[in-house]
Amino acid sequence: MISINLGLLEKTVVLFYICILFYSTHGDSKPLGKRAINEVQLMHNLGVHKHAELRQDWLQMKLREIHTASEKNNEGKTGLLSDIIPNLKDLNQREAEDIIAVLEKLVNPS
User: Fold this and answer.
1) What b/e string do you get for 37-63 counting C-beta neighbours within 10 Å, with b at 16 or more?
2) Contact 98, 106 (CB under 8 A)
3) pLDDT tens figures, 38-94
4) Is 109 helix (H, G, I), strand (E, B) or coil?
5) What are the residue ranges spanned by the domains of the chain?
6) Whole-number pLDDT of residue 51
7) pTM of the full structure
8) In angstroms, what CA-CA distances link 13 with 3, 24, 25?
9) What's residue 47's pLDDT?
């Protein structure tokens, strides 16, 4: 049998360490007290905010992937009114009336 000769101070320190080890491993990991209602609301709001940020980041990423027009189609067009007018001269009366009706609806949506 091995005998360990410890003084009173060493025995106290060893017992103290054993108690700390015992209570730290047998904890229930429950919170010390109930959360206040405002803490619960704050945590809920934080979760909602994080979810909204993730959704916005995802949407931004998807919008960056969308290509609406090619570069080749826009090289020859300047978008000036003088470039558009010759094309309007080729319209017949019915097409011109339809375009005017659409423009009026855009200007006066009511």
Assistant:
1) eeeeeeeeeeeeeeeeeeeeeeeeeee
2) no
3) 888 999 999 999 999 999 999 998 888 887 666 555 555 555 655 655 566 677 788
4) coil
5) 1-27, 31-107
6) 95
7) 0.33
8) 18, 16, 18
9) 94
